[in-house]
Write a structure and sequence with these properties.
The structure is a homodimer of 204-residue chains. Chain A has 204 residues and is mainly alpha-helical. Chain A has 10 helices and no strands.
Chain lengths: 204, 204
């Protein structure tokens, strides 16, 4: 077998394992999920899983990175286009490709658990900080470029608006984890947040 | 000893125990704190603590209620005054008596832990929901009364604005638990949120 095929096979296997892990974390949350759950979900042996990931934390970080890297690549790709609407891109980053304000990432509750219960672990803390700044960079870049081309007002600092977007998403994710869907009024709150962004960026 | 004195004594003892528990939860967080930590901090025996509280969860709920009840009583008291500024009252609820936007409740990280890790426990979930709606009621009442007397615009529903206030606070509390203070830019984000509220309530 050529090394290229072997590499491709490995990448595909890794992706399958991550998919199975995702299902497990959505069902059990981070703390209660185990490597055994992931083995069962993916129908692999202990060796088959540990060949790719050394621990539950390792699996989780791979899942977190996957999501953020996709968002970063997608953003960079769209920003390359001439005459791009930075507002549309911002909405896409907030509510997904279909701009649906009623959708919540099913991984959100486990993500919160992962960072909250691990907040006193130096490694997890460092990781959380890196991730915060990486996510911040995505929003910030879109806002900056929109400000540079005159689509957005420069009234507020791009860094501050980007941070407020993260706080809002985190707050909604938190409420969504604790309360039932009908109690959160996700869609209505999201639409009000869009009004706020229009105010801050002076967009019609 | 008259029953009245005995009751007062009991209430004072209970308050002392809650104070000690608060110190413990701020230091250890909810999950890692134990009843033994509270006994040591309050210098009481096991019996002395269990006479007042049956479990760590019981202690924690008492602390949570204390904070919310104080906020509710304070709000009701201020709303009784003629010519009250509903805007000032809203700022007081958000940032405390001194309106300091750089302050964060030191209990916030443990509060998040308490609700996030317990989100699949039916009792904790029910409690979280009750607490959410009780907190919502406080903000909502201030906004409604401000709208009724013409101080605030009726452009947006009081319920929705009140919910967005909770989401914002929850999001900031979350970021503050995971990141260092200098990374959160608490003050700047809070001031931008105040701008948002001015926009939503049409306040100058």
């Amino acid at each position: 077998m050529s090394p290229k095929v072997s590499k491709e096979h490995k990448e595909q296997r890794r992706a399958e394992l991550l998919n199975a892990a995702k299902t497990v974390f959505i069902e059990h949350g981070y703390e209660r999920a185990t490597m055994k759950h992931i083995m069962d979900e993916a129908s692999v042996s202990r060796g088959g899983l540990y060949q790719y990931f050394s621990s539950k934390e390792d699996v989780y970080e791979a899942l977190l990175e996957e999501g953020l890297n996709t968002a970063m690549e997608d953003t960079e790709e769209i920003l390359k286009n001439e005459g791009v609407s930075h507002w549309d891109l911002l909405m896409r980053r907030l509510f997904g490709e279909d701009h649906d304000p009623d959708r919540m990432d099913p991984m959100a509750p486990s993500n919160l658990e992962f960072f909250i219960t691990g907040r006193n672990d130096p490694r997890r803390r460092k990781y959380g900080k890196e991730r915060y700044y990486y996510g911040l960079k995505i929003y910030k870049e879109v806002i900056e470029k929109g400000q540079a081309c005159g689509e957005f007002s420069k009234k507020y600092d791009s860094d501050l608006i980007a941070r407020s977007m993260i706080s809002f998403i985190d707050g909604l994710a938190l409420d969504h984890s604790i309360l039932d869907s009908e109690d959160v009024k996700l869609k209505e709150q999201s639409l009000l947040f869009v009004e706020y962004l229009k105010m801050a960026l002076e967009v019609e």
